[in-house]
């Protein structure tokens, strides 16, 4: 089976590396369609598949086509490849917000898997949520799921609207975590640590907390209660968080990401 990845950026490269690293696909069966010369130069050094600049040379040869361009570039892509696709082409789209119906109407294809991965997929520790059209056969869906599994965990959902929800939680989520870590590092520097010390304290605290959570059955709230002694320091910090409406702020952030995914869906 020949796989074509359209867009050799962050996520396109992540998929290529994961597929090759897991030996599920050989480099001779991987094609990459990329339009940026700078990106092509980078991809050439990686030696991870055949690189193409022109859709005419690679789209007809592909069995599975992965759409990994920005949603804002989708319309132009449809114009470039529309005439080259046929109903047997299987498409995996990871573009945020872009709806299955738009792909069906814009490209006249029906075998579509829509997925929302996240960046830790780069190290095989990603989270992908995906769904598919009824035209995708069981063996085809299993094959796509096997590919997604090389990047971490994958969850199938029946309802497409959950893809925008997943974008707002796990898709964008790593950036939320880095934002919180960055804030703690800043707090540590303010409290007297060097930048390097602040990073060590913060990274190890996140690492330890996640490991603790993953190796036990307690909920986040139960762990918070174990850290926060009555009348102690943690309670003081958490009270300050509440006074500053931190939790509603975080929840609103995900709502804003969800709304943006829907807007991208309307415009691409
Ligand atoms: N970066 C992330 O954490 C995540 C991104 N996504 C989705 O993945 C998609 C790609 O995101 P990134 O990899 O971060 O973007 P990126 O900007 O790193 O890569 C996109 C690549 O597509 C190329 N491209 C654009 N139009 C093209 C065309 N017509 N033909 C060939 N190549 C073309 C660009 O030159 C660029 O190299 C987006 O739709 C995004 O919503 C999904 C989940 C996580
Ligand atoms: O920020 C974005 O639009 C993409 C989708 C999820 C993560 N990055």
Automatic annotation (TrEMBL):
The Pyrroline-5-carboxylate reductase catalytic N-terminal domain is annotated at: 2-97
Instruction: Report the pathway entry.
Output: Amino-acid biosynthesis; L-proline biosynthesis; L-proline from L-glutamate 5-semialdehyde: step 1/1
**Keyword match Ligase:** no
Please name the InterPro entries in this protein's record: 6-PGluconate_DH-like_C_sf, NAD(P)-bd_dom_sf, P5C_Rdtase_cat_N, P5CR_dimer, Pyrroline-COOH_reductase
Localization annotation: Cytoplasm
| Stored HAMAP family | P5C_reductase
> Which family would the database say this protein is a member of?
Belongs to the pyrroline-5-carboxylate reductase family.
Q: What is the protein named?
A: Pyrroline-5-carboxylate reductase
Q: Which organism is it from?
A: Membranihabitans marinus
């Amino acid at each position: 089976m020949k796989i074509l990845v359209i867009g050799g950026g962050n996520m396109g490269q992540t998929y290529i590396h994961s597929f090759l690293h897991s030996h599920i696909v050989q480099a001779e069966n991987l094609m990459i369609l990329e339009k940026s010369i700078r990106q092509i130069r980078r991809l050439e050094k990686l030696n991870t598949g055949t690189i193409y600049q022109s859709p005419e040379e690679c789209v007809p040869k592909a069995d599975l086509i992965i759409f990994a361009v920005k949603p804002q570039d989708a319309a132009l892509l449809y114009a470039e490849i529309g005439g080259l696709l046929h109903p047997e082409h299987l498409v995996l789209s990871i573009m945020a917000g872009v709806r299955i119906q738009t792909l069906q109407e814009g490209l006249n294809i029906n075998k579509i898997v829509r997925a929302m991965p996240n960046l830790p997929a780069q190290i095989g520790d990603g989270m992908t949520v995906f769904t598919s059209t009824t035209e995708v056969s069981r063996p085809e869906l299993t094959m796509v799921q096997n590919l997604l599994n090389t990047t971490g965990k994958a969850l199938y959902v029946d309802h497409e609207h959950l893809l925008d929800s997943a974008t707002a939680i796990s898709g964008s989520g790593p950036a939320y975590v880095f934002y919180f870590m960055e804030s703690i590092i800043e707090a540590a520097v303010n409290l007297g640590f060097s930048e390097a010390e602040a990073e060590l304290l913060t990274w190890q605290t996140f690492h330890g907390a996640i490991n603790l959570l993953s190796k036990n059955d307690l909920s986040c709230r139960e762990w918070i209660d174990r850290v926060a002694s009555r009348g102690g320091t943690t309670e003081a910090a958490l009270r300050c968080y509440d006074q500053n409406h931190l939790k509603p702020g975080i929840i609103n952030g995900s709502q804003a990401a969800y709304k943006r995914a829907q807007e991208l869906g309307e415009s691409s």
